[in-house]
Amino acid sequence: MPFDALRSAPLALGSSAPVAIFDSGLGGLSVLRAVRTALPDERLIYAADSLYAPYGERDDDFIADRTLAIGEWLVSQGAKALVVACNTATSQSIAQARERLPIPVIGVEPGIKPASLTSQTRVVGVLATAVTLRSARFQALAERHTGDCRFILQPGHGLVQAVERCDTDSPELIALLRSYVQPMLDANADTLVLGCTHYPFLDRAIRAIAGDRLALIDTSVAIARQLERQLDSFGLRATPAQAPDIELPRLYSTNDGQALRQLAASLLGLDVTVEHVVIPSRRTRTLESDPV
Ligand code: DGL
């Protein structure tokens, strides 16, 4: 039953059920970090579809197919709400996910609005996947907030792959990032929208290139707040009384999970094992069998 049909009915899900967070890969860990800080009483399940990342190189139907399959799997794990912590998946499939899944679904979008409100030079760089930048959803968002701002749109080819390899500071990565960021600096941008949840893990590398000349806009804290509002409005927020039972987040990956474990440990200080999970979907059934 779609969630809309449940809005007027009492929810059978308990507030102690987990919140699910999903991304094409490791990037959603930046959202998980913000959610853990904002909502420490919530149980969390994280699913990384790293076997099929980056989504930014996939076609729209593939992205929607995987988003729905993983969303359904997370619902089957007892999730009470889903955060699609992927700009690319949100831009292509959030409407279908909301229609299909019987729980609240929270999406993400590049922080165009806060950037346009705060930029002094009125020149704003936007780094996101090519799929996100060309999506109708992003185009509408940019149109709504452009005003007198000039947005420099830059697809971040190669950046998701680097983070998936846990490369956040190699000379090759810095050179690639420089080729994206320097033209923005040359155009007098003072703000950079990190329009992909993988990119906050590159903040130090970006600082190494741009120093303090660019304010970095990362929406993970705003997403955590939106999740909080949704949980409150549906009476699904975990109570502090449930906190003593809280365990560490459960992490799942569709590949061997090594990189997820490494990044969770090094960047979030989370030392947890990652479970491998096979989540079949219409489009992946036609691909070679799982290499893992
Ligand atoms: N973290 C995803 C996003 O926010 C990465 C997309 C991809 O896998 O290309 O867009």
How would the blueprint of this fold be written?
Layout: H1 3-6, E1 19-23, H2 29-38, E2 44-48, H3 60-76, E3 81-84, H4 87-100, E4 105-106, H5 112-118, E5 123-128, H6 130-134, H7 136-145, E6 150-155, H8 159-164, H9 171-186, E7 191-194, H10 203-210, E8 215-217, H11 220-233, E9 250-253, H12 258-268, E10 274-276
Parallel strand pairs: 1-2, 1-3, 2-9, 3-4, 5-6, 5-7, 7-8, 9-10
Helix pairs in contact: 2-11, 3-4, 9-10
Bound molecules: D-glutamic acid.
D-glutamic acid binds near residues 53 and 196.
Describe this structure in a few short sentences:
With 292 residues, the chain is of the alpha/beta class.
Low-confidence stretches: 1-11
How many domains make up the coordinates?
A: 2
H-E order: HEHEHEHEHEHHEHHEHEHEHE
Helix run count: 12
Strand proportion: 5-15%
CATH architecture of the largest domain: 3-Layer(aba) Sandwich
Strand order of the largest sheet: 4-3-1-2-9-10
Rounded to the nearest angstrom, the distance between the terminal CA atoms is: 33 Å
List all distinct small molecules, including ions and cofactors, that are bound in this structure. D-glutamic acid
Multimeric organization = single chain
Q: How does the overall form come out from the CA principal axes?
A: globular
CATH level 3 topology of the largest domain: Rossmann fold
Q: Assign the structural class, choosing from mainly alpha, mainly beta, alpha/beta, alpha+beta, or little secondary structure.
A: alpha/beta
| CATH class category label of the largest domain | Alpha Beta
Biggest sheet overview: 6 strands, parallel
Q: Please give the share of residues in helix.
A: 40-55%
Mean pLDDT: 92
Number of strands: 10
Specify Rg, calculated over alpha carbons.
19 Å
InterPro entries: Asp/Glu/hydantoin_racemase, Asp/Glu_race, Asp/Glu_racemase_AS_1, Asp/Glu_racemase_AS_2, Glu_race
Family: Belongs to the aspartate/glutamate racemases family.
Catalytic activity: L-glutamate = D-glutamate
GO molecular function, one term: glutamate racemase activity
